[in-house]
Batch of 2 targets.
Target 1
Amino acid sequence: MIIASDGHGVDLVEGRCRICGDSTEILRLTEFNLKLCRHCFVRFFERRVRRALEKHAMLGERDRVVLAVSGGKDSTALLFALKRLGMVMDFEIRALHFHLNMGEFSDLNLEVVREQADIAGVPLEVVRIGDLGLRVHREFRAVTEGVARIRALEQALRSADQVVTANRRSYEAGTRTVLDVLNAEQQRQSVLRDLAQARYEYLLARVRLVSLSGGDVEGTIAGVDGVLRGAQ
Ligand SMILES: [Zn+2]
């Protein structure tokens, strides 16, 4: 007699466990043609996980495993299985939870995750995605707006160059004073200063963006170094 069914080939029935012989409410796994008590089912599940880890050579001895846990049934089941397997197979497990900053739902979720990690005896790391997302967004905007500002200032510099040249020629021709030339030169220097500042801010934002998104910071700094040398 079926007491309950998950609709995916696992039924709760009355009967006898194939492994320990316990006669109680047992789980019938249609796919494996197997009847197991709750205790033996957990061991069965752990053995299946272990076999998958070994078959695909996913872990070495003394490896450190970080498991992303959502608080849902799948990652929670894996958390408990990996904790036990870690003791047998000699690897260390830590749990990582992304708090999505979606109000009460995310807070309740975090409570569940904390409780489960506590029971499993696994250290938990929590990353608040909302803060990170906001920072990434801010740096991304600084990068895109930085490009537009640099382009505009480069255009302004070309205009200032032309004004300086025109003033020099007019001064040589005697139609402009030396003050006009100096004013044009001062205007050009001010654009140059703004352009240097804009480039500096843009490159800093790029480095921060790469570091926030876990990218290649050293490579970006090397690239930035090249750009700064090129700009001189
Ligand atoms: Zn059993």
Target 2
Amino acid sequence: MEINQISYGELGSSAVLAGWHSALSADWDEARHDAPIALQQADDQPGRFSHDADRTWLWRGRGDRMTSSDARHIPVLGPEAVGLLAPRDGGVYVDGTFGAGGYTRLILQTPGSRVIAIDRDPTAIAGGAELVAEAGGRLTLVHDRFSNLADVCAGQGADKVDGVVMDIGVSSMQLDQAERGFSFRFDGPLDMRMGRDGPSAADVVARASETDLANIIYIFGEERYSRHVARAIVAARNEAPITTTKALADIVAKVVRAKPGEIHPATRTFQGLRIFVNEELDELHRALDAAERALKPGGRLAVVSFHSLEDRIVKTFLTARSKTGGGSRHLPELAQAAPSFTLLGKRPVVAGDAEVAANPRARSAKLRGAERTHAPAHPAGDLPGWPTLASVMRAGR
Ligand SMILES: C[S@@+](CC[C@H](N)C(=O)[O-])C[C@H]1O[C@@H](n2cnc3c(N)ncnc32)[C@H](O)[C@@H]1O
């Protein structure tokens, strides 16, 4: 395997992992092809997705563009999300959340498609080297945040793209590695940084004021006992620094009671800190604006979210951007901007019973999609006035 460029710099100056264009295209191994579960193959209509009566996307492809590594990762709602993009020969697509590359693999199944895949996690980018090599020049991996996707595309010579897909949130690989500090299921350093840069969860827990902690845990964790949790954290950190996932989970469990069968009492606090540390909701707001700028007319946006906070942002954005009319005849000067998107379906697509049975994480997944119109992008919206990482760390205790 040869890679023409791998380097990881500060985010903002994107690091790029691009395929060595010619040498490796012969590496496709048809015999080892494994279709991802939930995809059914049919040889009659190569290279397109279609919907069956049960709302299951069927990949109608020849199944000749993937290797055994396809089966390694089963992306949630992958066929549905990539199906919404309707990839085509010659199209350029952005996978804003490369992760283990499940969505990217599905896009690359369309011959002649090209993917610019982004992930803020350097481990995910490094893990994609093999796929870059297999893709024979059709895949470029970029270490960056998806909020920068418009600039990333321009930097790759693609000012306008045919599709943007995002599978928001944390990956199972990140959750399952104790040393990444995302989960109280394992004891590890209280880290939670997807990009391994900036303040960690331990830094926030050590530095944020009690009020800020309570707000973070309430807004991003939707924990109704947030004030109790914040008070307990402050009392504990006055005794000793809170540096591990287990230490924090134990502190929370003393003040948030859970009945048998309910989620772990620390679940919401961990979620709140993780979203805050990674500025996940701000990232999503900015990424939607960036996708609107980067997509060409007819280009498609597909977003899978796992949480109501995220889904609300996607839904609100797409509703606002797809609204027609509405200009008041009394206030004609306030006439609305022309819709920049047309919704693809009124309701979100959710996982079917089989996918949920195979992968419980799919239960909360929602997919929304829209197609870009010819109208200019709307002005980017203001971010909500919630606490920001910079302001909380600056203010301190
Ligand atoms: C749910 S996983 C994606 C899984 C992927 N669809 C697959 O099939 O393997 C989410 C990924 O998005 C990345 N991510 C989350 N927020 C990001 C952001 N703001 N910018 C870039 N990558 C981000 C995470 O590091 C993680 O690898």
